[in-house]
Amino acid sequence: MKHIYDILHKDTRAMLYSHASDTLFTPADAASAAVKAGQDLTGADLSEENLAGAQLGGARLAGADLAGANLAGADLGGASLVGADLSESNLAGTNLANANLESADLSEANLAGATLEQAVLQAADLAEANLTGANLKRANLKLADLSETNLAGVSFEAATLTGADFDGANLNQANFTDAIDPPPPPSE
Questions:
Q1: What is the mean pLDDT of residues 18-39?
Q2: What is the pLDDT of residues 74-86, one digit of tens each?
Q3: In Å, how far from its chain's centre is CA 162?
């Protein structure tokens, strides 16, 4: 019996990739296979999918719908996620080093312990997200919305924070060493 999983475009519903196998597999396996095959997944609908542990390094997922997806422990290093919807997704422990998340929606996402070193998060929406213990060294967060975000223990070493909104964010033990335009220290 063939098992088939299709990845469709979120708007047009056109097929971007079809994975077929004689053995059972997960959506994470199918998405990993698509990326390994060099498939462009721009605009893919992967919302609410369980993609935990998926190998998506270098993936082309610009404008993709990943809202509510479980990407815990996935590898998205160097991926293009420009304008992607990752709202309310689970990205705990995910590798997003060198990923391009410009203008992405990460509101209410769980990014606890995620690696975002040198990631581009310019104009990204991270409002009410959990970034506890995340690594944002040398990341570009210019004009990012970090309002009401849990940033406890986050490393912002040498990160660009020009125009970022930290209103109501938890900055307990956050490290801003050599950061460009860090928020003012909390008043006593």
A1: 95
A2: 999 999 999 999 9
A3: 20
Closest by CA position to 43, among listed 73, 15, 71: 15
Nearby residues of 77 by Cβ (< 8 Å), 6 or more positions away: 57, 58, 95, 96, 97, 98, 99, 115
| pTM, two decimal places | 0.95
Contact 142, 163 (CB under 8 A): yes
Angstrom CA distances, 100 to 23, 103, 167, 187, stand at 34, 9, 24, 34
Report how far residue 43's alpha carbon sits from residue 164's, in angstroms, rounded to the nearest whole number. 27
Contact call for residues 131 and 151 (beta carbons, < 8 A):
yes
Alpha helix segments (H runs only) across 42-150: none
CA distance 188 to 186: 6
